[in-house]
Amino acid sequence: MSARPAPAPLLIACALGIEQFALRRRERGGAGGPVTILRTGMGPAAAERSVGRVLAHPALREAAVLATGFCAGLAPGMHPGDLVVAEETRDPRGSVPCVGTGLLVKELVRAVPGRTVHTGPLTGSDHVVRGHERSDLLATGAIAVDMESAATLLSAVRVGERPVAAVRVVVDAPEHELVRIGTVRGGISAFRVLRSVLPAFYEWHRSLLLPRR
Length: 213
Description:
The chain has helices at 17-23, 44-55, 101-111, 132-138, 149-159, 185-194, 198-208; strands at 10-14, 35-39, 64-73, 83-91, 94-97, 117-124, 144-146, 164-172. It has a five-stranded mixed beta barrel, surrounded by four helices. α2 packs parallel to α5 (149-159) and α3 packs antiparallel against α7 (198-208). The protein is 32% helix and 25% strand. The chain is of the alpha/beta class.
């Protein structure tokens, strides 16, 4: 019998220490292969550098990549603790389509019952978006914005073809702007949701290993 191929690794990228801490609060067993949780640092440049450097390592060269952490919601009616599953990520350099959006939605509803899950384009910014900038970005069709997801996925697919996705937790929204993450109820709510999402990420990763019909 021929040897089975090694399971593909999963790289989960986030920017902030508090995001990494939330993701490490749960037992990390259950993925379809080895899992690396990477803290990239804040901003698109830091995300691009960190992801490109890590994916150059032979052990992670074929890793699936999932960007996660907090984001700002753009649409009226969004609330802290809502989830955003990107159909694509965008920045001025182009867009990257995401894989397995429907499965992620289904698994997030199961992992975090009672939370609203939004799907649509996730746009990138090089700064924290406030006020009128939200409505300007909403007019482009984007439903949420963060500083790292677009750069993370763009860097990942430039290194080599691979499955990519982005899942973000809304930490502030048009009617719920925050000044500092974790100091008010919205930030705490978003942290608790982020702490619960790993099972959905693992199901997404396992689905990538199934034979396609």
